[in-house]
Amino acid sequence: MIFENTKAFAQKLDSQDSLRKYRNEFYFPKVNDKEVIYFTGNSLGLQPKSAKNYVDEIMNDWANLAVEGHFYAEKPWWDYQERFAEPLSKIVGAKPLEVTVMNTLTVNLHLLMVSFYRPTKSRFKIICEEKAFPSDQYMFQSQVNFHGFKPEDVIVEVKRREGEHNIRTEDIIAKINEVGDELALVLIGGVNYYTGQVFDMKTITAAGHKVGAYVGWDLAHAAGNIKLKLHDWNVDFAAWCSYKYMNSGPGNASGCFVHEKHHNNPDLPRFAGWWGHNKERRFKMEPTFDPIQGADGWQISNLPVLSLAPYLASVEMFAEIGMDALIEKRDQITAYLEFILHEIDKEISSNFEIITPSNPAERACQLSVFLHGEGRSLFDYLMKNGVITDWREPNVIRLAPVPLYCSFEDMYNFGQILKKGILEK
Ligand SMILES: Cc1ncc(COP(=O)(O)O)c(C=O)c1O
C-alpha cells in the first residue's frame, strides 16, 4: 500500500480498520484535557473497561460468600486459572494443558530454571542475548551462584556485530554450536525489549536441542504481540508477564508454558506447593506431592484471584479477536508509523535513527528510535504534548503502536507533534 502523510489518509485507514471498535473498550489517560497518544503498551497496557466488572465480581462474591467463594462463586476461585487454559493456549500456540498462570514473570523464570537448569561439571553453560533485560541478567547470575558456579564461567552472551543494532540468528546458532556439549540452557527474550527485534525462536530452539540443551524463552514482549507456536516449535518452557500487550494491570500475574513432553517426567525437579498437587486429592491434605499432569503442576500457592480477574477480562478479549487479526493490523500500523518517521526525516533534519529491524518478519509492535543529540529534551516535549512514550538509556525512545487501541490518526498526529518538537529545539 502506498501511504500518505495526511490526516485524511490516516482517517481512511481507521475507517477500514476491522479492530477500530476496540479502541473504545479502553480507558485513555488525558494530558491537557485530551486523550493521549499511547505508545507504552509494551510497558503497561491500557485498562480494558471490562476489567472492573471482573474484579467487582470477585469482590461481591467475597462479600456475599466469604470462604464459600472457593467453590460457589460465580467463577469458583479454587480452579480459576483453568479458565485461562483454552484462550491463552491459542495466544501462545500451545495445548491447553501446557499453559498456566501464576506468580510473576521473574519468579516463574526462576522456578522454571529449577526444572530446566541443572548444571553438571561438564554441561553448565547458559546462552543468552547481549544486554538481556536486567531482571534476567540478575536471575542468571543468582541461579549460577546458587549452583556453586561462577557467572563468568557460565553465562555466554551473543553479541551484536560492530556497528549493528540487532543480533543475527546465524551468530546465535554459531555460538550454540561452539559451546556445544557444555551448553545446558538457552534462554533469550523472544522479542528484545530495547530494539523490538523478534528472534527466530523455531530455528534457535532446534539448534539448542541439537547440542543437547534445553531451550526456554522470556516472552514478556512477545505474548499478545506476535504469533507464537510454542508447542510446534518444541520449546521446553516459557514465561511472560501479562501487564504489557495483555493489558492485565500493573505488576500482574505471569503466564507459563511447559511442553507436554516434560509433563510426565518424574526426574524433572521442581519447587512444589499444594496448588500443583493432584486436584482431586488436594484437600485430602496428603503428605506426598503428586503433581498435576500439565503446566498446572508447577503451581505452588492458591490463586491470587483478584489479580487474575482483570487478566481474564483481557484474555477473553484476545480470544474474541484472535491473533491473526491483531497481527494484520499490527503490521500495517507499525509500517505506517515507520513511514511517518521517514517522512518527518525527509522534511526536516531530524537526527534520529530507527534501530528496530526494517524487515517486518523480524519486528512486531515496536519501533525503537535512537535520538542523536538532544534526545531527552525531545522526549520531555513529547510527554508534555500528550505523547506517552518511554525513555531508555542512553538515547532511545520506544514506540509501540498497539493494534488493539492505537489509531492510524494517532500516528499522523504524533508525526506532527514530533516535527514541531524537533523544529522548536
Ligand atoms: C523482557 C523482560 N523480562 C523480565 C521482566 C521482569 O518482569 P517482572 O517484573 O514481572 O518479573 C520484564 C519487565 O518489564 C521484561 O521486559
From TrEMBL:
It comes from Flavobacterium seoulense. The gene is kynU. GO terms for biological process: anthranilate metabolic process; L-kynurenine catabolic process; L-tryptophan catabolic process to kynurenine; NAD+ biosynthetic process; quinolinate biosynthetic process. Its cofactor is pyridoxal 5'-phosphate. Pyridoxal 5'-phosphate binds at residues 105-106, 133-136, 218, 221, 243, 274, 302. GO terms for molecular function: kynureninase activity; pyridoxal phosphate binding. The modification N6-(pyridoxal phosphate)lysine is found at residue 244. This is Kynureninase. Belongs to the kynureninase family. One of its GO terms (cellular component) is cytoplasm. InterPro entries: Aminotrans_V_dom (IPR000192), Kynureninase (IPR010111), PyrdxlP-dep_Trfase (IPR015424), PyrdxlP-dep_Trfase_major (IPR015421), PyrdxlP-dep_Trfase_small (IPR015422). Keywords: Hydrolase, Pyridine nucleotide biosynthesis, Pyridoxal phosphate. Homodimer. It is an enzyme of class 3 (hydrolase). PANTHER family: KYNURENINASE (PTHR14084). The keyword Hydrolase applies. Its EC number is 3.7.1.3. Residues 90-246 form the Aminotransferase class V domain.
